[in-house]
Amino acid sequence: MTRPITAGVDGSEESLAALGWAAREAVRRGLALRVVHAWRFQSHEAIDAGDPDIQVQWVREGLAEAARSVTERHPGLEVTTDVIDDGSVDTLVAAGADAEMLVLGSRGQAAVVGFLLGSVGQQVIAGAKSPVVLVRAGDQAAAEAAGREIVVGQHGDADDSAAALRFAFETAAARGATLRAVRAWTLPPLFAYSPASLKLLDEAGGLEPYEKKSLGEALRPWRERFPDVPVVEHVEMGSAGQVLLSVVGRAQLMVVGRRARRTAVGARIGSVAHGVLHHAPCPVAVVPPV
C-alpha cells in the first residue's frame, strides 16, 4: 500500500507554502496528499470562541478551503483532510508515521510556526519516523526550476547516509533534477592517526582522495538504482554545515540526515541539520536513519 504525503496546515503563510510544496511533490510522485491540522482548544476572552465546537468548526472550514485551493491547481490529485484533536508532540509525530514525508511550514531562524513552536518543532523532527520537510513562506513552483539541484549531505560510510541518499535520489528522479552529493572533511587530530588509518590513507593517496573514494562508494548503489539521475560529487574541506550552505544557491531542496539524541533539556537533531534549517532559504528535508 502506497503512503501519502502529509502536510501540516494551520492557516499561516508558511504552512500554506508547505501545502503547495507537498501537493506538487505528491503529483510528481503519483501519491495522495493528506492535509492535517493538529488542534487544541484554547479559550480567549478577546474573541467570542469559548465553545470548542465553534473553534473546531472554524478549523474544519479553514482546512477544507486549503484543500480546495490544492484540488483547483491539481485536479487529479487525491486529497484528504483530518483535524487532529491533540497538539502534542507524539500526536504530530504519529501524523507523519504512515506518510512518505511530513511537510511543515517554517519561519526564519528555523522556528516552526503554528502548532509547532520552538522546542516542540525540534522534538517532532527528532522523533519523526519519516522525513520531515520544512518550507519557508514565499516558496513557489518557480524555485524548482530546471538548473537548480537537489543537494544532499553525505558523511561516514555508506550505511551512515543511506536514508538521506535514498530520499535525495528519489526526489531528483521525480523532478528530473541533478543531484549534488556533498561530503565535507577536516584534518583529524594527530591522536586519531592509527597504523590502520594511515594504511587506508596511504592506499587512497592522501586525505582528499580518501574522502572522494568514500563518497563514491556511498553513492555507487544509488547511482546504479537511479541511472538517469545526473550526479555531481562535491568533496570540500570544511565543516559540514558551512560546506552545505556554500552551495545552497544551487539548491531547490537541501537534504540532510538526522542525528537525534535526547538530553536533559529535550531532543537535539544534530548540529548540521540545525545549522542548515537555521540558514538555508530553500526547503530542507531532515531524514531519519534507517
TrEMBL record:
SUPFAM superfamilies on file: Adenine nucleotide alpha hydrolases-like
A Pfam family assignment: Usp
Gene3D superfamilies, per the entry: HUPs
InterPro entries noted in UniProt: Rossmann-like_a/b/a_fold, Universal_stress_UspA, UspA
UspA domain ranges (all copies): 1-136, 150-288
Domain of life per record: Bacteria
Family: Belongs to the universal stress protein A family.
Protein name listed in UniProt: Universal stress protein
